[in-house]
Amino acid sequence: MKRMGLVLLASGISLNVSAASVGCDDAFVQLLDDELVIDVKANQSNDTVNLQCALDKAVSLRIPTVRLRGATYHISSVIIENFKGTLEGKSKTGV
């Protein structure tokens, strides 16, 4: 698993965010180690492959949450098999 770290410096404050590759498109799908969450960002094109990959990896790695970060996702069909967790995101009203 490839690990990436991000350090933000603002006014002398540093925040460490640890994310890891799960074997999907790293630009859009990341494992947040601290939260046991797989984050999926929208790519404004076709998000089907990234969402399917994230769900499959959540099953194989036993990650309990897949979180959708974008406002709009373009997907055709995904197969959710043996996923025992939560698929999170915002509604159209932002809740």
Descriptors:
alpha/beta, disordered N terminus, 6 strands, single chain, 1 helix, 95 residues, six-stranded mixed beta sheet
Total number of distinct structural domains: 1
| Spatial strand sequence of the major β-sheet | 1-2-3-4-5-6
Structural class based on helices, strands and sheet pairing: alpha/beta
Taken as a percent bin, the fraction of beta residues is 25-35%
Overall mean confidence score, pLDDT: 82
Query: Tally of extended strands?
Result: 6
Shape descriptor reads globular
Estimated radius of gyration: 14 Å
Q: What distance lies between the first and last C-alpha atoms, to the nearest angstrom?
A: 33 Å
What does this structure look like?
It is a single chain. With 95 residues, this protein is α/β, with parallel strands linked by helices. The chain has one domain. It is 15% helix and 33% strand. The chain is built from one helix and six strands, in the order ββββαββ. It has a six-stranded mixed beta sheet with strand order 1-2-3-4-5-6. Strand 2 and strand 3 form a beta hairpin. The protein is globular, with a radius of gyration of 14 Å. The termini are far apart. The N terminus is likely disordered.
